[in-house]
Amino acid sequence: MLDKSGIAKRIAQELKNGWYVNLGIGIPTLVANYIPEGVDVEFQSENGVLGMGPFPFEGEEDADLINAGKQTITVRKGAAFFDSAMSFAMIRGQHVQLTVLGAMEVSQSGDIANWKIPGKMVKGMGGAMDLVASADNIIVAMMHSNREGESKLLKECSLPLTGVGCVKKVVTELAVLEIKDNKFHLIERAPGVSVEEIIAKTEGDLVVPEFVPEMKL
Amino acid sequence: MNKVVNNVEQALEGIQDGMTLMLGGFGLCGIPENSIAQLVKLGVKNLTCISNNAGVDDFGLGLLLQNRQIKKMISSYVGENAEFERQMLSGELIVDLIPQGSLAERCRAGGAGIPAFFTPAGFGTEVAEGKEVRMYNGKPHILEEALTADFAIVKAWKGDTEGNLVFKATARNFNPMMAMAGKITIAEVEELVPAGELDPNFIHTPGIFVQRIFKGQHFEKRIEQRTVRTRN
Question: What ipTM score was computed for the predicted complex, to two decimals?
């Protein structure tokens, strides 16, 4: 089974040279720590920066320089700042090659829910609806089950949707799954995790090939 | 054209109960904090506030919420404010949550004379309810209408007497579009310089969009999430 860093490490293997990448809040943010050697990518943060760098050294924080999670950051050489309309022009205009975000639920048709639990929690969608409606390449990083132990990979989402039919790939602590033909397809299993466990914890329809390779991290 | 007013009191003259205000900023970054403090002092009520976030409990727009001055919020993300969530879930506060990119574009459109536009964001979700859907390039899009405000209040790093503005780093965010969409736009700046001192090649918001400009007395510039790494 993977920890959160492990999920991020596996997703980092999907990064390709020359890509612009938007990372959501939570596990997705960790992906920046595991860029494979020789791969050059730039991180876009929707509040208005391309070329995000690591966190600042203590004492060098700048209140005017944050990421979409409101965390203090630095920028790399060659970075650019822009306003919010320009930022979402990059996103809706499909100039960003990969979006990684978290989710509360994902359905086998690629629907995603991650912004509201009616009557309980309403944080808002932020940029998530713009991101999922436009990006060609969306990877969801999340735990396989919620805190109550219920599967988050469902036939249909029960929570208010963020986007429809947009998720192509999901990486959890147990597995890598692809979504196509209205089904989840098991691609890889995490080290030490059995196919049976993944089947048991996936509520949606799951296609399991005869041989399921273990992830290489 | 000289746009300079002497202080925040003069800058906010004319703001009344029931008006619609746009306030720049993303989280607590790039918010017009001097003007917000003055709005608290003025005690104007029943405001509709258009702002990406709602501040935190004791800073930013959170101060207006605590004071019950806001009737309606139009925002994209309000997760950092417990008082906001309480007022919303109890029905005291009307809330219109809209996708961040649509919020930005609706403000831009409002200032640019575009009454509405189609966007893919929000199709198939609550956001699309009651909105016209059209197919473009084989994909469904929803009709979103422009936003304008009685007053737009923005914060810039540097400004000149003509109202030209330059923003710093990610404190730019919603400020330029909101400056365009206010019937009256008020800019509070950290540095106010004479016309001619800012390089015209590097102006972010041209002065035509700004009616009043003043130098803020005090900028706390609170950091919401202080994240650092250690030196080895």
Answer: 0.96
